[in-house]
Specification:
Layout: H1 2-24, E1 29-38, E2 49-53, E3 59-60, E4 66-73, E5 75-82, E6 89-95, E7 100-107, E8 121-124, E9 129-132, E10 136-141, E11 151-158, E12 164-170, E13 174-177, E14 185-193, E15 200-201, E16 205-209, E17 217-223, E18 226-232, E19 238-240, E20 248-254, E21 259-266, E22 269-275, E23 283-284, E24 302-303, E25 309-314, E26 317-322, E27 329-333, E28 339-345, E29 351-357, E30 365-370, E31 375-381, E32 387-392, E33 398-404, E34 418-424, E35 430-432, E36 441-448, E37 455-461, E38 468-474, E39 483-488, E40 492-496
Parallel strand pairs: 1-7, 9-16
Antiparallel strand pairs: 1-4, 2-3, 2-5, 5-6, 8-10, 10-13, 11-12, 11-14, 14-15, 14-16, 17-18, 17-40, 18-19, 20-21, 21-22, 22-23, 24-25, 25-26, 26-27, 28-29, 29-30, 30-31, 32-33, 33-34, 34-35, 36-37, 37-38, 38-39
C-alpha cells in the first residue's frame, strides 16, 4: 500500500511540472539599462530609484548614474525615476526579446521648496565712480539660501545709447570688461541665477570712464539715420558725446564758454542747443525762431569770441541770441530775399561773413558785413555752383571757404570739384590754397587750425555715396610737400578749437 502512495505522489508531481511548463511556454524576456543625469548640467545622479509599470524589479543607480534591470518580460512599459529633491520623470520603453533597451532620464530639481538667491549687491566700482580705466574689473556679492551654485549675467550699456552688451554664464563674483570708451558714463546690473528660480536682479549701478585728454576736435558721424556728434583728440582717440537716438550735427566749440553749440532736430524744426564738452548739460537755446535755410545739412551758425552770444540764420534773416536763450534780436535781412545758409563772426566782433543762396542752394553770394549791415567786402557773387564753409582767421584779415570749381548745378545739389580758397580782405584777392586734392573728390567744411598753420576739412568722393573722412592738412614748406592725413574716418562737419 505504501508503494502505491509513493507512485501516486510521483505521478501528481509529474503532472504539476507538465502543467507548469505548459503555463510559461511562449514567454520571452529582454532587459533594460540606462542612466539618470541632472537636467541642468547633465552630471550623473546616484541613488535614484528606477522601476516600471507594469511592475518589474526596483533598482537604484550607482555612482555613475547607471542602472540595469535584467529579465524583463517583453512588452511596453513606463519606467519612472525618483529622487528626493527632484521632479520624478517617466520614460516609455519597449522591451524586445533577448535585447537590451536603453533609456536616459534627465531629472529637474524640484522648485516646490527651493528659495531664490538673495539680491546681488554691486561692490566695485562704487556707484557713480568717475575716472575709471578702459579695462575695468566689476565685482559684486551674492548668496543662496540652499547654497545652490549660482551663475551671473552682467548687462552693460552707455547712458547716451540704447545698445546693451550682455556677459553671460559667469560663475565668479567678478568680471573684467574691456575696450570701454573714453569719457563715457556706463550703466550696469547683475542678475544671479540658481538654475531653478527666476534670476534675481541687483540694483542699477553706474560709472564714468577716464577722459582721453584735451579733445580739441569735434565731428559728426552717421549712425543709422541720425547724425551723432563725437569728440576726438590729437591721437585720433574719439568718444561719442550725443545720443544716437537723436539727430544732432554741426558742432561748434567755444573755449571761453566751455560749451559746444550744435543743431538738433526738435519735432518738425531744427534748433540750436549747447552742452558741456563731454556731452552733459544739454540746453535748448532757440525757441521762438528756429534755425532754418534751404538745406539743414549745409546750414551753419557762429559764436562770438567770448561765448556769450550766437548768431544764426532763419531763411533771409540773421538773428543774434544770448547763450541762455534770452535777447533774441534780428540783426540783418538780405535785401534780395536770398536765404542765409552760413555765417561766421570775426573774433573782434566787428564783422560777419555770410553765404546766401536761392532756395536750391545756388546763385551764391559770399560777402562780409559790419554789425550795422553794411557790405564791406564782396567775396563772390553771380558765380555758378555750390560754395560754403566760411571761417575767419584770428586777426580777421582772411576768410577760407570752399567752392565747386566746376560750376555744376543740379537738382540734387551734387558737387563735382569743390576746392579750398582763401580771401584776403585787404587785397581782395582770392587764392586756391589746397591744390593737391585727389581727382574726383570734394574738400568741404574747411576750418583753420587754432594756430592757423594747418587746415581741417572733409574729403569725400563726388559720387555723393561714398564715406566722408576728415583730413588734417599741412601745407607744403621748403623742406617737404603738403601732407593730407585722415584724422577721423567716416566723419564730417569738423571743428578744431
Amino acid at each position: 500500500m505504501k508503494n502505491i502512495y509513493i507512485k501516486i505522489s510521483c505521478l501528481m508531481l509529474l503532472l504539476l511540472c507538465a502543467c507548469s511548463e505548459e503555463k510559461f511556454a511562449g514567454e520571452t524576456f529582454g532587459s533594460i539599462e540606462g542612466k539618470v543625469v541632472s537636467a541642468v548640467d547633465f552630471k550623473p545622479l546616484a541613488n535614484v530609484k528606477v522601476f516600471s509599470s507594469p511592475n518589474s524589479s526596483i533598482v537604484f543607480t550607482d555612482e555613475e548614474g547607471k542602472f540595469s534591470i535584467p529579465s524583463v518580460k517583453t512588452g511596453d512599459y513606463s519606467f519612472e525615476a525618483q529622487k528626493e529633491g527632484y521632479v520624478s520623470k517617466f520614460e516609455a520603453a519597449t522591451i524586445n526579446e533577448d535585447k537590451a533597451t536603453t533609456v536616459v532620464f534627465e531629472l529637474k530639481l524640484s522648485t516646490s521648496n527651493n528659495k531664490a538667491p538673495a539680491t546681488p549687491v554691486l561692490v566695485s566700482p562704487a556707484d557713480n565712480a568717475t575716472n575709471q580705466p578702459l579695462e575695468l574689473a566689476l565685482s559684486w556679492t551674492a548668496t543662496d539660501p540652499e547654497k545652490d551654485a549660482l551663475s551671473y549675467t552682467i548687462t552693460l550699456r552707455k547712458e547716451s545709447g540704447t545698445d546693451v552688451v550682455t556677459f553671460k554664464d559667469i560663475t565668479a563674483m567678478n568680471y573684467t570688461v574691456k575696450e570701454l570708451a573714453y569719457s563715457t558714463k556706463y550703466i550696469w546690473q547683475v542678475a544671479a541665477s540658481d538654475g531653478i528660480n527666476q534670476p534675481v536682479l541687483s540694483a542699477v549701478g553706474s560709472f564714468t570712464t577716464m577722459p582721453f585728454g584735451n579733445s580739441r576736435f569735434l565731428f559728426v558721424r552717421k549712425i543709422n539715420d541720425n547724425n551723432v556728434i563725437f569728440a576726438g583728440n590729437e591721437s585720433a582717440a574719439e568718444v561719442q558725446i550725443t545720443n544716437s537716438s537723436t539727430n544732432s550735427w554741426r558742432p561748434r566749440k567755444n573755449n571761453a564758454a566751455a560749451k559746444v553749440a550744435f543743431i538738433r532736430s526738435s519735432g518738425a524744426q531744427n534748433h540750436i542747443y549747447t552742452m558741456n564738452p563731454d556731452g552733459t548739460g544739454v540746453f535748448k537755446v532757440t525757441a521762438a525762431v528756429p534755425i532754418a535755410g534751404f538745406n539743414s545739412d549745409f546750414i551753419n551758425f557762429s559764436w562770438n569770441s567770448s561765448g556769450s552770444q550766437i548768431i544764426y540764420p532763419y531763411f533771409d534773416k540773421l538773428y543774434r541770441i544770448n547763450k541762455d536763450g534770452s535777447g533774441l534780436t534780428k540783426i540783418y535781412e538780405t535785401p534780395d530775399g536770398k536765404f542765409i545758409s552760413e555765417c561766421d563772426w570775426s573774433k573782434d566782433g566787428t564783422k560777419i561773413a555770410l553765404k546766401t543762396n536761392d532756395a536750391n542752394g545756388y546763385n551764391v553770394a559770399l560777402y562780409v558785413i559790419n554789425m550795422g549791415g553794411t557790405v564791406l567786402n564782396q567775396i563772390a557773387s553771380g558765380d555758378t555752383g555750390a560754395a560754403g564753409g566760411l571761417d575767419f582767421s584770428v586777426d580777421g584779415k582772411t576768410i577760407i571757404y570752399t567752392k565747386d570749381a566746376s560750376g555744376y548745378e543740379g537738382g540734387s545739389y551734387r558737387q563735382l570739384d569743390t576746392r579750398v580758397y582763401q580771401y584776403d580782405l585787404n587785397s581782395r584777392v582770392v587764392s586756391l590754397i589746397v591744390s593737391d586734392k585727389p581727382s574726383g573728390t570734394l574738400d568741404l567744411d574747411v576750418r583753420y587750425s587754432p594756430n592757423e598753420a594747418e587746415l581741417l576739412f572733409t574729403n569725400t568722393s563726388n559720387d555723393g555715396l561714398s564715406i566722408k573722412n576728415i583730413i588734417r592738412y599741412t601745407p607744403s614748406s621748403e623742406s617737404s610737400g603738403a601732407l593730407r592725413t585722415i584724422l577721423f574716418a567716416n566723419a564730417s562737419m569738423p571743428d578744431w578749437e
